[in-house]
């Protein structure tokens, strides 16, 4: 199947569900023959952005690098799915302006829900003061003003969240509509 290529840029608090949605979406798209890559913020920080910290400057550099790679992929027919907190609006908008077919997905869950999930035990550490500058605790998260898609992961299932993105990709011609089975 030929896909047009796109960047599906998830953004949201730690624990909001970016990685989970990215994996679910990737497996669905691959099952339909699409070329897909996931650029996960945590993984990128262990290679492409190794050595960068969490100051605003370093976070912006990390996001620019992810955006650069996502753009290379999306203009070559790959659906690049990114999963990084990407807390600052200005840098997301900068990447939007320089990336082919940029689709912003706001993975929206209230802080208390993300904190109760505490997937990586990071909120507990941030509350205890062991981690400084943690997004949502003592560093800002700037919500997207005009995201293409919002996934409310506190009230939707993972399937429902992924469905929204697949439907968007179909309706905008990034992937062919699924063939209905009668
Ligand atoms: P992030 O990548 O944003 O830090 P993760 O995907 O690692 O977040 O963790 C999200 C957690 O929330 C997972 O344990 C996942 O199972 C759970 N979850 C519950 N409902 C949803 C949903 N609708 N979408 C995504 N994750 C969900």
Description:
With 182 residues, the protein is an alpha/beta fold. It has a single domain (6-171), classed as P-loop containing nucleotide triphosphate hydrolases (Rossmann fold). It has helices at 18-31, 41-44, 56-74, 89-98, 111-117, 122-127, 158-171, and strands at 6-11, 36-40, 79-83, 102-108, 149-152. Adenosine-5'-diphosphate binds next to helix 1 and helix 7.
Name a few traits of the molecule.
about 180 residues; alpha/beta; Rossmann fold; 5-stranded parallel sheet; 7 helices; 5 strands; about 40% helix; binds adenosine-5'-diphosphate
TL;DR of this structure?
The protein is an alpha/beta fold. It has one domain: 3-Layer(aba) Sandwich (Rossmann fold). The protein is built from seven helices and five strands.
Percent in strands = 5-15%
Architecture in CATH? Answer: 3-Layer(aba) Sandwich
Q: List low-confidence stretches.
A: none
Total helices: the number is 7
Q: Can you give the mean pLDDT?
A: 94
Order of helices and strands: EHEHHEHEHHEH
Query: Which molecules other than protein and nucleic acid are bound?
Result: adenosine-5'-diphosphate
Secondary structure class reads alpha/beta
What is the CATH first-level class name? Alpha Beta
| Backbone CA Rg | 16 Å
Multimerization status? single chain
């Amino acid at each position: 199947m030929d896909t047009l290529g796109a960047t599906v840029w998830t953004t949201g608090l730690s624990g909001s569900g970016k990685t989970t949605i990215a994996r679910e979406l990737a497996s669905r798209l691959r099952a339909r023959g699409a070329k897909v890559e996931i650029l996960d913020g945590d993984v990128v920080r262990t290679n492409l952005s190794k050595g960068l910290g969490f100051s605003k400057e370093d976070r912006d550099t990390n996001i620019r690098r992810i955006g650069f790679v996502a753009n290379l992929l999306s203009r070559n027919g790959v659906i690049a799915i990114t999963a990084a907190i990407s807390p600052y609006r200005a840098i997301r908008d900068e990447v939007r302006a320089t990336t082919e077919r940029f689709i912003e997905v706001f993975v929206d869950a209230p802080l208390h829900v993300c904190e109760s999930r505490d997937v990586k035990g990071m909120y507990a550490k941030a509350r205890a003061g062991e981690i400084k500058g943690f997004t949502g605790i003592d560093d800002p998260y700037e919500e997207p003003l005009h995201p293409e898609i919002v996934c409310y992961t506190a009230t939707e299932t993972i399937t429902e969240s992924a469905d929204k993105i697949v439907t968007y990709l179909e309706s905008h011609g990034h992937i062919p509509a699924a063939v209905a089975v009668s």
